[in-house]
Amino acid sequence: MEPTNKKSKMTNKYHQKNKKKYYQGNKQVLQAGQRGFFATCNINEKGCVRECYNLLNHYADILYGPELPKDVEKKESEEQKTAGETGKVSDDDDDDLEAAAAKCRETLTQRKVRFQNVETGTTNCIFIRTQLDDPVGLGKHIVNDITTTGKSMSRFVLRLVPIEAVCRANMPDIIAAAGPLFDKHFLKEPTSYGIIFNHRYNQQIKRDQIILDLADLVNSKNVGNKVDLKQAKKSIIVEVLRGWCLLSVIDNYLESKKYNLAELANPSEKKSNGDNDSKSEEKSVETDAASPPAEQHAE
């Protein structure tokens, strides 16, 4: 009986391991080339994700109209037809067909969802991937509306920052991703800028190095660009989360309370509550004592 029990236990462990791998493999994770919205919270990450969905879908429906099921179905049928035609050519290989079909289904599923939460592996840091071409435009609309109405529509979301690019957290990849962004924001007319740098669970990217390299890149686009730490017209957002770097360039970021939704809704309470909220946020987003959060500005 003993060998049978051992075999049974080994079989169960094997199935559990495969099941775990299956669910881990189906999780949405940060990847290079994504864009979306970076959100921070103090508690209740699930509540934060839910609020992000509500906020983003609410304002996206206002700006772009709701996603129409008919449009989605039309795209789906067209792409399935294309996949089917491709499949006829490579009829001989069932494995290739199945892999192509699975990839097609995954692509269609992603396209159906305008916003999708992805794993960051970092406490109290949420990333919502988007299929929209311009997350910054939607972010500005949200900020302007909250400032006007005084209603943040959130309890758990602290900051909601649009992100234009995601890349690996190493200097060559960061510079490569920043190049096209800086062409868009710093090439035509001279402007003032500041660099806001945060890192969590990463000690490889050094503050001085990234600030110097990014500042050199900005100045190479237009020699008239100048650093302004207090009233920068454009802020370069650099958020390093473990092995990933989130990049964005946002107009009037400092003036817009660094996209802190509570401060935007209640500007009069900034002095009494704003500083405490910011400190609380910084403490909450980093639990690794060896890698404290840091928000740095170019000098």
TrEMBL record:
UniProt keyword Calcium, yes or no: no
Bias-annotated ranges (Basic and acidic residues): 73-82, 268-286
Record-linked PROSITE patterns: THUMP (PS51165)
Keywords, alphabetical: RNA-binding
Pfam families noted in UniProt: THUMP
GO molecular function, one term: RNA binding
Any one of the GO BP annotations: tRNA modification
Chain segments annotated as transmembrane: none
Keyword Oxidoreductase: no
InterPro entries, per database record: THUMP_dom (IPR004114), THUMPD1-like (IPR040183)
THUMP domain segment(s): 145-251
Annotated segments matching region Disordered: 1-22, 73-94, 264-299
The family this protein is said to belong to: Belongs to the THUMPD1 family.
Protein's UniProt name: THUMP domain-containing protein 1 homolog
Annotated source species: Drosophila madeirensis
Taxonomic path: Eukaryota, Metazoa, Ecdysozoa, Arthropoda, Hexapoda
